[in-house]
Amino acid sequence: MTKMNWKSLMSAQRLGEAKKVPSVTANQLRSAYEADYDRIIFSRPFRNLQDKTQVFPLPDQDFVHTRLTHSLEVSSVGRSLGKNVGAKILEKHPDLNHLSPSDFGAVVGAAALAHDVGNPPFGHSGETAISDIFAHHSLSETLKSKMTTAEWRDLTSFEGNAQGFRLLTRNQRQGLKLTMASLAAFTKYPCYSSFEQKEKGRKSQKKYGYFQAEQDMFRDMAQSVGLTQLDDYVWARHPLAFLVEAADDICYSIIDLEDGFGLGLVSYTEARDYLAQILKGKYMPDKLEKIPSDKEKIGVLRAVAIQVLIEESTQVFLENEEAILAGTFDQALTDLIPSTPVLQEISNFSIQNLYQSRQVLEKEAAGFQVIDGLLEIYILAVYYKYYQSESYSGRHKSAFKLLPQDTIYKLDHEANTPYESMLLITDFISGMTDSSAIKLFRIIKGIDLN
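and the corresponding structure tokens:
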């Protein structure tokens, strides 16, 4: 296998543009990678994360994380990881003198900021709901017969990571046009949905990272940054994707625990003791007890715990840099750090006490009903309108007219196959916020006419 190199991996080339050498001039105070961050934060898919469930439904009182606040925190942690790693890489590779540690931090920060943009409403249950409706819809056999195996797998095993890549690369007017480095670092699963020769133990092949519709674009990106090719249309991860993953792992492990405490699902003692295990010698109970509020105590412990996990993850990455560049290392960094055992304990505890709590299960159940209901309507409306017009009824027409104008335009002018049409419908549904999905569902079902 061809070894990856940092010069290519940090490509500042943008989709559809000529190659560039990353630099900052007097007239360009932002690097190309910092511009990526800004483009993402001002984008509609990112803004929509403010009303998408992370884990817990939004309560009337108290603060819990949405996908937007979670993404901002993952980006912050990712930036720290990138800068830590970048500083050491630049010491080791003096030929990279056109880069700075901040460039590495900016790439990881931008990729981490975007890591959840493809997730549908209602948490991970939204992905399952989309997959299930295509597998069991009344038109399933008809649709399946008009698609390739890989195309059908895209729909029946819907993946938020692949949807995210699609959102970041689709030419919506000018499009985001991120750098190849940020796009590649965003992609934790550089393979396709129907890839069957998966290597057991490769974390990067646990899911998939792009739909068939974006296959050629993904190939161009992978070749541009020099990812190691493992099979046809399958590559090793961009090294910085490991840091994006670590930032996400660190945040959801620690922050979900803090949210659970805030909602009364985790006791102060439980939260404190788990975080203290991560702090190890940095845990100072006497100093902690001087803080009057239990919430503030947990906040302080959370902050220090995240810093410890950043340091541990940085060390594991640097110890495995050569194997990562060779494409032979393929594990989550947080599975190899000194704090791995306590993170596993927290995960087991969270599954039992947080992710299976009644309020989370109620939100998931509602999400299934809403997404199933909307997809049931729009799969029929779109298929009958464009591919079986004799069945296109007034009911379907009414629903169709409620689609956004840009979706209708793309259906009319860009979708040439049932697969492409169905992807546009999943674009619409997965891009909705929790509130907008519920509102449209209630209107179409005649539940709320006010």
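(Above: one complete record from the training split.) Residues 358-387 form the longest helix (30 residues).
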